[in-house]
Design brief:
single chain, about 350 residues, alpha/beta, Rossmann fold, two-stranded antiparallel ribbon, 11 helices, about 20% strand, globular
Length: about 350
């Protein structure tokens, strides 16, 4: 019996010393290895939060420059998009793109796509509000994988690729970065920041809608306040699917930022951010009360002087006086159904 025990110990020691076929590179989060994450369609998936060598290999096969597709909508083609591709000036000439208009760039989240509610809500809302170039980014070649660790890595790759597309578009049309508003949801929210910090020039307006929490607690590529001239974040499921603390020049925590009236699931809460933005573009409202900290905003304990409207068409750089504020954190309450704004 003793001999058998010794033999088993030796075998286990040898096996544990052998290199694994798919070694772990890093832990994406300090939390549990397996976590539930919502995709861009609101479906929860149990995913592995440890990044392995195979995840890096999968990401290496994604080429944002050749695989991303850019769909242009304008008031001349509000329902049927016109494709745009990096470096293809001939295709660009066939579109209704006008560099004199402001340009909106929309970026969907993980395991989502062009027909996601994020896009179907915001494209008509932006075009109803103003005569714009609305560019819907299709990065499904990088986002539509059940492998969440690879999708997180592809967020950086896609963001850098979109920045190169914007630089190319500006170079051939004479458009400027100060005419851009970039809006992203979940993984796409962090990507908006990656784009902003990689574009030549200062993007005027970045909106991060419910920046993803899983994979970004310690991630160097998460959304940052200085990624654009004015950066705004809307939190609607903070601490579960969305990021908890403030990330932008201004962060809004409607209803405390976690549980939205009219929702009965975290997935619904996670999606509310783009419904609020869409309504703000058309009818305004959503007046936030200034808070000292994000903890105060999450509890509704906000007594500082100053109000600010959430969302909207134009950056609030002049009105907010960002550098003079000790904080840019705001709390507001919404209705449970449209119209969500209480004014």
């Amino acid at each position: 019996m003793a001999t058998a025990a010794v033999l088993l110990t030796v075998v286990l020691a040898v096996v544990s010393a052998l290199p694994t076929q798919d070694p772990v590179i890093r832990k994406l989060d300090p939390g549990p290895r397996y976590q539930h994450v919502a995709d861009g369609e609101g479906t929860l998936h149990l995913v592995d939060m440890w990044q392995k060598a195979s995840d890096i290999s999968e990401s290496a096969r994604y080429n944002a420059d050749s695989q991303n597709i850019y769909h242009l909508f304008t008031r001349l083609n509000p329902t049927v998009s016109q494709p745009m591709l990096l470096g293809n000036t001939g295709l660009l000439g066939l579109t209704n793109y006008d560099p004199r208009r402001r340009t909106i760039v929309l970026i969907h989240g993980w395991n989502s796509g062009t027909h996601s509610p994020f896009n179907t809500v915001l494209v008509p809302a932006f075009l109803s509000a103003e005569d714009l170039n609305v560019i819907m980014v299709d990065w499904t070649a990088g986002s539509n994988t059940i492998n969440y660790a690879a999708a997180v890595e592809n967020t950086r790759i896609a963001g850098e690729g979109i920045a190169r597309f914007i630089d190319w578009l500006n170079g051939v049309t004479g458009a400027v970065a100060t005419h851009y508003h970039i809006v992203g949801h979940s993984l796409g929210a962090h990507m908006a920041g990656i784009i902003g910090r990689n574009v030549n020039g200062n993007i005027a307006y970045l909106t991060a809608l419910e920046p993803a929490l899983p994979g970004f607690i310690t991630n160097d590529h998460k959304f940052r306040a200085n990624d654009g001239a004015y950066t705004e974040v809307i939190h609607t499921n903070a601490g579960l699917l969305g990021y908890v603390s403030d990330l932008g020049h201004v962060d809004f925590y409607p209803n405390g930022g976690t549980d939205m009236p009219g929702c009965d699931s975290a997935e619904c809460d996670h999606a509310r951010s783009y419904y609020y933005l869409g309504e703000s573009l058309i009818s305004g409202g959503f007046t936030g009360r200034r808070c000292a900290t994000y903890v105060g905003a999450m509890t509704g304990n906000c007594v500082l002087w100053g109000n600010l409207n959430m969302g909207g068409l134009v950056p609030k750089t002049g009105r907010v006086q960002i550098k003079k504020l000790s904080s840019g954190i705001f709390y507001l309450e919404t209705n449970a159904a449209p119209p969500f704004s209480r004014g």
